[in-house]
Every structure is written in structure tokens, then in C-alpha cells.
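input
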Amino acid sequence: MVTAITEGIKVTVEVTYQAEFSSPHQHHFVFTYKVNIENNSAHTMQLMRRKWEIYDAGDTSKVVEGDGVVGQQPILEPGNHHEYVSGCNLKSGLGKMRGSYFMEKLFDGKQIEVKIPEFQLIADIFDN
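output
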């Protein structure tokens, strides 16, 4: 589990390798990651966009951008949190991800870039 805090917004990520959905012999490795976003600031915030950088040891890196997270643009009042689960497929069993959420303060429209901490994607086949 990794955590980063930007202007009072705390982002925590926990990764799970999904062996039952992976096919190592076919170079297909599936990971899920659970993200918890806590608003510890004094302002109501809305998550507008996301940007992910995905690195795969067996492939090139890629950038994925889009609106919200898993089809939502959650509004977080001070003290509230939003949690979601998403996934990533790699061609190797070794990689990493990091990124940013772009959030807007609802009272004045100011946007901030909130860091998503870098986390490792390591298939259990590499654990000894």
C-alpha cells in the first residue's frame, strides 16, 4: 500500500495480482488496484479528470487519460472519501503505475493536480 498527500487530498493505493484471470504462458497478467481518495482539506472538491502512466517491463509504456474515475466524477466534501477498484493488464508480470487526478475546488473553480503515488505491479510468480 502506498500513499501521497497533495494540498490535503490523501490518495492511497493497494494492488492485488489476479492469478485466476492471468495466463502467464500467454503473456497476460491481470492486476486490480483499490484507490481511496480522502479530502482532508477545508474545501469541497470534485474529481474531474485522471492521467495514468503505465510501465510494463515486457512492453512499452503508455499514458491513459480520461474524465473522472470508473465513470464517475465524485464530489468530496471536507472529511469525506471516495473509494473505487479498477484494473490493469500487462504483457509481463512486472510493471508500475503512477499518475494524477485533476480536481476542482467547487467554491472558486480553482483546479489542482493531485499526485497518485507510484506503485508496483508484481505477479506472485516472482515472489520467492
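quick obs: The beta strands are 2-6, 9-17, 29-39, 45-56, 62-67, 75-76, 81-90, 94-105, 111-122.
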